[in-house]
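A favour, since you know our structure tokens better than I do. Go ahead and set the record down below.
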Amino acid sequence: MPQALEHSGTSWKGQQLKHKPSLIDRLDPRLRILAAAGFASVVVLSHSFIPLISGLLLALAMAVLAKLALKRTLRRVIAMDMFMIFLIIMLPFTTPVPVGEQPMLQLAGLSASWAGLSHALQITLKGNAVILIMLSLVGTMTATTLGHAMASLKVPAKLVHLLLFTVRYMDVIGQEYKRMRRAMQARAFVMGTNRHTWRAIGYLIGMLLIHSLERSERILAAMKCRGFNGRFYLLDNWQLQRLDYQCGLGWLLILTLLTGANWL
């Protein structure tokens, strides 16, 4: 595994995206979650290009307002669009051509339909709009703040606990993985495309799972010794401010306009 890819997959510590302080950071985290969820619902359920293009432009404006790092944001969006390219290529050939309509393209006996291309483009617009709005509104807060905001919104406690524990110990498991990889390299192990490599990787994944299970049992025992009864007590006492009400009403109006644009 390339070192850069190995690092990017194991070094995330659950912190917010690096960005400059912006107006978005002053908003209540609960409002930001609800705004992102409402936007995603409206965009995903849209069936016309007008609200989808408008939603994408709105998401781009929010990314600028959140002062996201341009290069990092583009890398994340492009990583998702690499999958969308295959969707745009394949979906026209897997969508039947309506009766009485000319196919867009015929290749090796297969017919591509305009309806399939339109559907693929709509999915691409939806995906880009949603990921940009999530990076702008949700990605700019820490994972701990996100978990506390979800708990304040009455999200099931088990889901909140799962999120917080995953974020807390993802880096711990990543460090354990790196330690085991260094041990393999110290024994002159070199990645290849042979049976020995696949067997070694299987052993690596198996030992990582075993170590993770053992660590989870020790953590549970330590928490029980400290009186943990399955509940986190939140110390955050958020209060909606005037700016939150103003932005919330404005956002609700925008979502209403996007919903109405489906019938234009």
Observations:
- Residues 1-14 have pLDDT under 50 and may be disordered.
